[in-house]
Design goal:
Keywords: ATP-binding, Coiled coil, Leucine-rich repeat, LIM domain, Metal-binding, Nucleotide-binding, Plant defense, Repeat, Zinc. This protein is α/β, with parallel strands linked by helices. The chain has 28 helices and 41 strands. The longest helix has 30 residues.
Length: about 1050
Amino acid sequence: MADALVSALVSTILNNLDSLFREEVRLAGSLKTELESLQRTFTTIQAVLHDAEQKQWKSEAIKIWLRNLQQAAYDLEDVLDDFQSQARERGSKLSTFFSPQNPLLFRSIMTRRVKAAREKVDVIAAERIKFHLETGVGEAVIEGNKDRETSSLVDESEVIGRADEKGEMVSMILSNATHHDGLSVYAICGMGGLDDFDVKRLTKAIVESIEGKSCDIQDLDPLQRRLVKQLVGKQFLIVFDDVWNESRDKWDRLKQALQSGGRGSAVIVTTRLEKVALMMATVPFRRLGCLSDDDSWSLFKQRVFGMGTNEGNADLEPIGRQIVQRCGGVPLAIKAIGSILSSKSQESEWLNVRDSEIWELEDEVNRILAVLRDYVMEKDELIGLWMANGFIPSRGQLDLHDMGNEIFSELTRRSFFQEINEHVDGTVTCKMHDLIHDVATSIKGYECCLIEPGERLEIPKTACHLFVHSSSSTTNIINLSKLPPLRSLILDTHSRFTFNISNPSNFISNQKHLKVLDCGHGFSNTAFNSLKHLRYLRLRGFGVKALPESISSLHNLQTLNLQWCHNLRKLPKGSKNLKNLKYLDLRDCNELISMPVGLGQLTCLRKLSKFVVGKDKGGGIDELKELALEGELSITGLCNVKNSTEAKNANLIEKKNLRSLELYWRSGKYSESCCHHQHENDEEILDALQPHPSLKKLCITDYQGVRFPNWMMDLLLPNLVEIELHCKRCDQLPPLGKLRFLKVLSIWEMGALKRMDSGFYGDMESSFPSLEVLTIVRASCLEEWTTMNGTKHFPRLSSLTIAHCPKMVKLPMLHSLKELEVFGANVTVLNALMMNATNLTSLRLHEYNEPTNIPDGLLRNHKHLETLWINGFILKSSSVLLDNLSSLKCLILHHCSQLESLPRGLQNLSCLETLRLYGCESLISLAVNGLQDLSSLSSLEIQSCGKLTSLPERTQQKCIACYKTVCLFDKLTVDNRVFHKACFCCHHCRTTLKGCCTAGRRPHYDQLFKRTDSLDKSFEGTPKMAKPEKNTEDEQNAQKVVNLFGGMPYDCVPNREGYC
């Protein structure tokens, strides 16, 4: 792994040197000689890097040699950066910059710097001879494939934990064999990695396996004819293990020959990629889960104690079980660590492994590809960091972004990353394996430093990459002014760290080698012009309102991430000078009012999440024309587009890699500009903004046309998964029911829409086949939502929200609903919905107009309901609404103004875990029978219920030590004051009920309860609660809590010493 990074860096340097010579730079004689010498030396070094990587794990000297080489390569890369930076600053092309007409001083300085770098590299290159390194690039790939080959010879006694899966697969194959005529392909999704899916090689291997001898046929056609001859009419079972091939064409060519087999023939495929499983399988694929705890321990014991060693040491078992727990049920990790520990008999050695000090053991640890690290990362963020640090090698004309995608895919195949999720907007997220993270840290730990609370704040002198992170309330002071020269600095501004920097500009100027800087708003006004080598810059926070113009001078900048800069209003005017910029992340920059002129000149730009259309030349929508954008794009200020020709120049239809497109006629989501724009040509403009058919998410907001464009009515975007429409004047919806992949549909503020009928469904036998979530809000004129006879509609609809549709009187029957939320619907509509949706698990009812009686029988047939939220309805204590809700876990009553005590059916809610009461002004008591039958209730929240003066006795319990009466739930909230059972102790014996408080949020007990000396003395006798000394708001709240508990605080007070 270390060599892979050095190799990428060396490759980048060679590419930079090549570009200097390709551009025919007229270099001074000595400077050209030095650069040519460097090129030869690095080419020689590159040839032995793979061998050095293989040998470094057994040779500390080679490991040090690689580190020295990396540092020398870093230094040279900085020198080459300065070449180009100085040329740009002088406003000259490289071809003339070094000509005799330019000052000789700079050429002399650069010659000395290059010579110094060359001499350093020469010394390092000469040292390679004593290591006897062999030349050869690319051997690792060949060896890797051989190492991953599998065999059909398996000792079944060693197979652990897959008995159920095996039984199900065998049963399925035998069942299908009797009545399935075609070839059945069964896919199993798990861990793995066969990436060489060579059709000819596989065909030959199958033939040789059948015939039991080698086959000399070399061409594919005769090979496949030979295979067909062997299979025709015969029943067979073939297993393809570890498949990574995503090419349907390759699979189809092989499958064609396999289809000649007899009835009941089957193929089993194991793979890690769902995409491969879906492509190859003819039946739903089976995903393998993690091993159970028992099976994990059995596999671990098999690996460690297979020969009977160490088994008698009882002290090792608890440590071993903790190690197995870290492996997360992933067999590969268990087997790898088990193999390492099989030769370790000392308890200290096992403790080292448990505490992640396994990396100094055997190089077999490089096979550990397991255990998830619970940190979600974005693929583009990773690629941006890789590019910035030179970890992505140059390969011909291939763009670094594309090369980064290839590397990400390869690391995924090798199980570095897991839980890969591609979101509808094109964002790809993943998680990293914990052990892989620790392996990487062990390999590059000498230059990577992570600081967290509770750890020593010493930063090693060798550190190049510093990450400061915290999730704790601990406050630490880090003196960044004394840091060594860094390449990466990432400051987690959400933490409680205090950064001791009195002069950020001075600090920045001293870190001239930085390539990655991720910081908060405290740096937003810093002059960045000294960071000539910076490739990655991230700023965030509400305090960022404008960026310093010096950012425009960062000519090497590749990533500018401004996500969550909510108050940012403008970008630097000279942003067009950032010619190497690839990612410009403006997500959630909702106050951005304009774009800098000439943004279309950034032809390397691949990610631009937001574009604000301006009125002036150089800021129009046509700036998007030549940009090959990917992922998501939000275009605001469309009211400034003059005509359809200008809109068409955005060239959206050619941007095939866009996945999400948002079109806003305002300048921003919350801007009032353009609200009253002339909308005569809105329809023409939207028609000209037709996206590529590959689009998956579409949002249109503040569009003032009366009809949708042809590309929507004709459904020229067949791959849409999510649609959001805010179109006040449109009275007809497109036939969205025809969209096979549509999962989420949101209809907002369509005030002209009167009905949703056949035109909405389209002429399909099954309309909306994939729709899962439907939201209809503020459709003030919508009266009817009807269905088509003989048509199956909404088969998968599970969530429905209807809000502020006062005229709606007719709705379809929706039997599949699981979640329903209704704002302001009349009782007739509500009854109709509830009558058919009998499988609801969540129901939220809100009434914001005149309080309405809620029908008693509304929930009669809803035994599956788990969450119920009633807001603003008239609900009386005698109501039987809660009867028969045997599955209810969460009940929220909000502004039920006439409710004096909780409905009588409350005592039957044996599964109720959470009860929340907000703004029930008439509430006097919780229930007639108290809460004694609510055996599962663990959380009670009371807000703004002014007449409630006491809690029932059932909120008390016996002290576990002295059996005195103490309190209460796991969690109690009274008017924003949070109490946890773990924070209370018995006054009589000072026993904390559940030990130390681990709630994370420390309640303000000092203010809620006045604990005085007289109270402390009460431990010796009868405890008494001290009276408040002041009538402050906090103490009024404290007194209210005391009153709610009645006599409780006399027996129970917070354990002030019990805080963590």
